[in-house]
Design a protein that fits this description.
With about 240 residues, the protein is an alpha+beta fold. The protein has 5 helices and 11 strands; from the N terminus they run αααβββββββββββαα. Strands 1, 3, 6, 8, 9, 10 and 11 form a 7-stranded antiparallel beta sheet that branches.
Length: about 240
């Protein structure tokens, strides 16, 4: 499917470029001929203005068609970048493999996964300039997944404003001082999809991530709840006030 879209887009690009080049060459030639005709026309029998006006209109029509082809090419390119697929994620609970989260409602949340037990884990939160705004040290952390929530306060205890993008940096080592492998994720409900500089992003809660980084998709937790009726609560055996009367 991706190859088909790519081939279609390449064909459209090649065809449009060739057409535009030929149109430019033809239009230049047409103007030279028209100018020559007007300079050398018989004053007693001037050229029919309607004829070359019609030719100019035809040239303009071809140019408009090429512009339309350019727009179609952009549409094919947009579909190939995953917008259509990403839109289907709106309203779904997803997990994205990214270490960047936005501060929203005074809080930013991540999930980190250790490949194995770590004797020492240093958790750092960095702002968009790479400065450390929060640091925390943990000991004897089991392997597996762990939630981490930051309250938005910097190392001086000041509350930072919402909206900033922050990066979670994990440094984990075992008892021998060897590095412990890890991964970082964000998780939440997809609320929007947008394209920025040709890249497709999804808004997950209050954060944004490339849609290609999404590693799991599920229904919102409220829809996952068991809605099976409780057989012990048989409403049919209860009399309504009208029946009791």
């Amino acid at each position: 499917m991706v190859d088909t879209v790519s081939n279609t887009q390449n064909t459209a690009t090649s065809g449009t470029s060739t057409g535009s080049q030929r149109l430019a060459e033809s239009f230049d030639t047409f103007l030279v001929l028209l100018t020559t005709q007007m300079k050398n026309q018989d004053p007693l029998s001037p050229m029919d203005s309607g004829e070359f006006t019609q030719q100019i209109v035809q040239m303009t029509g071809v140019e408009q068609q090429l512009l339309t082809n350019d727009l179609l090419k952009q549409l094919v390119g947009t579909s190939g970048d995953g917008v259509a697929d990403a839109v289907s994620l709106i309203g779904k609970e997803v997990r994205a493999a990214t270490d960047t989260a936005n501060l929203s409602n005074g809080e930013a949340e991540w999930i980190y996964r250790l490949d194995r037990e770590a004797q020492s884990v240093k958790i750092e939160v960095l702002d968009d300039k790479g400065s450390i705004v929060h640091v925390q040290a943990l000991e004897n952390v089991e392997g597996g997944e762990h939630d981490f929530s930051w309250d938005g306060k910097n190392v001086l205890g000041s509350q930072l404003p919402d909206g900033g993008a922050y990066t979670l940096r994990i440094t984990a080592t075992d008892s021998a001082g060897a590095s412990v492998g890890h991964n970082v994720f964000i998780e939440g409900l997809v609320r929007a999809v947008e394209q920025v500089d040709g890249q497709t992003y999804v808004t997950i809660g209050g954060s944004r991530a490339l849609w290609q980084t999404i590693s799991s998709i599920g229904l919102p937790s409220t829809q996952n709840a068991d809605t099976t009726p409780d057989p012990s609560n048989d409403s049919e055996d209860e009399e309504t006030p009208a029946q009791a009367a």
